[in-house]
Specification:
Blueprint (H helix, E strand, L loop, with lengths): L1 H8 L3 E5 L4 E8 L5 E6 L4 E4 L7 E2 L11
Antiparallel strand pairs: 1-2, 1-5, 2-3, 3-4
């Protein structure tokens, strides 16, 4: 599904994992230039993407988002 959304709208997706759960999320950038994704959008919990190895890049490269 995320590949179709990337193709239709150009949205970029990552796969995330923590000690309890994992998932696929769409990348966003705020006004300050911080790259983040909604881990649990319903409860408004987000995580910042700071390093390349923090997430698995599914539809783009970290360079596109300025991640070192």
């Amino acid at each position: 599904m995320y590949k179709l959304l990337n193709k239709l709208f150009g949205w970029d997706y990552i796969a995330w994992r923590n000690t309890a759960e994992s998932g696929i999320a769409r990348l966003h950038k705020d006004n300050a230039g911080t790259v983040f994704y909604w881990r649990y959008k319903g409860s408004r919990i987000s995580d910042k993407v700071v390093t390349r190895g923090q997430v698995l890049w599914l539809t783009c490269t970290p360079d596109k988002w300025g991640i070192k």
